[in-house]
Amino acid sequence: MAAWARVLIAVCVLICCVRAATAEGAEFGRTGWRGRVNLRPQDRVGFLRFKKVGSTTVSTYLMNRTAVCINSCAAQGSKTKCVQLSCLYTTNCSSCAELRSPAVANRQFCYPCYHLPIRKLSQQFDMHAHEWRTTHSMELADAPHLHLLVVVRDPYERLLSEFFFIRPACNQRKTELVTWLKQYTPQLQTAICNGDFETFATHPDSHATNGQVRQIVDYEFVTDRPLTAAHLELSLRLLAEASLVLVTDRLLPAGLALLDYTFSAETAGMTASMLLNRVPRSGESRQRVTSWIKQDSLRDNLTADTDLRRRVMKANMLDDVFYSEAVRHFEAAYHAMIALTS
Questions:
Q1: What is the pLDDT of residues 115-162, one digit of tens each?
Q2: Percent of residues, the chain, with pLDDT higher than 90
């Protein structure tokens, strides 16, 4: 039996075990989608942002529609600066007048939410929770709670997006993209610049392979030791713990409606159709494509190549399983929302 076939069988067994454990209420924390969330001043929405999954669109929608801001701000002289750099969203924006404005530009005044691994995200929240507990006298039930938001994308589409996001750096010297390009080995940099997507997406030294599993288990830049079934198991458990799992691309409009329902106080009493009507039409909710990204004719060919997709997905099997589970979590929550709003 081929090695990849044995891995596939092991993965299938693992998924069944994880699903059974979650069904039995295994102690993974406060797991899964629980309906509407009443965000208190001490609570935070922790956004686990994977690379190239459409997280900027989701973040902008979250701030514009749910009246939360990112971080808290404090005045320093004539300027206002962020108190801490994290991906924690809060309703406690009273200390920063700029963040109370509906304008996107002002809402992003404190917007240093990068692609933090879950370990650092948890550390940031623990710091906030400790500070809150030391300055407030409260019952245990009033302790700050972290609501984890995870956004996942089809692995092949995510790989294409990252590949074509980085490629313009081959002709540049001083941009953010050059930093992204130099994170890869010289061999992979050459592959990117030569348009060799398959090497970029399948090479063992490429941290783009199984990128979403890598990021959620904090294994992104480890390429000398391969990902294992244990990493996949951990990724699925963390996914099951998330308060909300969204899937972008074709499911993005429904996902934004679910995000609106979950965290926005304004949507109480709305039906599912009313929530969907609040979502901007396709394209309106997305950020403008960065000016350095140009249309690349190679992309259409790679998108349409079914044999290439099959080879790439064989090398990204863990991400494929992770994505399938994310879709399952999302669809279960979305159907529950429809039932609750009928």
A1: 777 888 888 888 888 888 888 766 667 889 999 999 999 999 999 999
A2: 38
